[in-house]
Each structure stands twice: as structure tokens, then as C-alpha cells.
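Task: sequence design from structure.
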């Protein structure tokens, strides 16, 4: 089954997010798709449009951008979409 980039799946793990200042945070991933993820951002004060790097469980750092941040949640778009098997792996972690 081919997935669209915006098909979203519930997550249940943390992502490490690093921004240009070098500061890193662990943020709970609320949902994820091939093109990005939504995180619990209550402890985060980054503005939309800022470049960030994100590290998902057992994966390397990848460039991304904060797209929106409101109501304690934030949307992060990956610079390169995830491979479908990678998304399936991450979905298995949440199961």
C-alpha cells in the first residue's frame, strides 16, 4: 500500500530536537507521517520557520523546519521525507 506524505499515525515515543543554538530537547512525538511530525511543545519556545534537526528513535539526525507552534503543540516538517519502511518501524515502536 502506498502512503501519501501526509498520512498521519499515532506515535508514543520521544524525539530529540536540536536547533541552531545547539540546544537540545526531548519532546514527545504525538503523531508522525512521511513528511513530518507533531510534538508536544509545551516546553519549547522556537518560532515557526526556524531550521531544526530531529532525531527519532534509533535513527540519525535529519534536517527539518518548525512549521507551526500553538496550543502546546508544534509541527515539524522533515527536509527529506521518511522512507516508508522507516515509518513502519516507528509505528511498530508505538504499538
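Answer:
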Amino acid at each position: 500500500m502506498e502512503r501519501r506524505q501526509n498520512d498521519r499515525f499515532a506515535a508514543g515515543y520521544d524525539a530529540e530536537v536540536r536547533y541552531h543554538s545547539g540546544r537540545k530537547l526531548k519532546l514527545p512525538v504525538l503523531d508522525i507521517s512521511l513528511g513530518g511530525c507533531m510534538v508536544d511543545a509545551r516546553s519549547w519556545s522556537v518560532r515557526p520557520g526556524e531550521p531544526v534537526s530531529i532525531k527519532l528513535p534509533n535513527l540519525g539526525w535529519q534536517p527539518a523546519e518548525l512549521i507551526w507552534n500553538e496550543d502546546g503543540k508544534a509541527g515539524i516538517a522533515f527536509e527529506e521525507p521518511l522512507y516508508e519502511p522507516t515509518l513502519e518501524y516507528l509505528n511498530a515502536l508505538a504499538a
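The chain has a mean pLDDT of 87.
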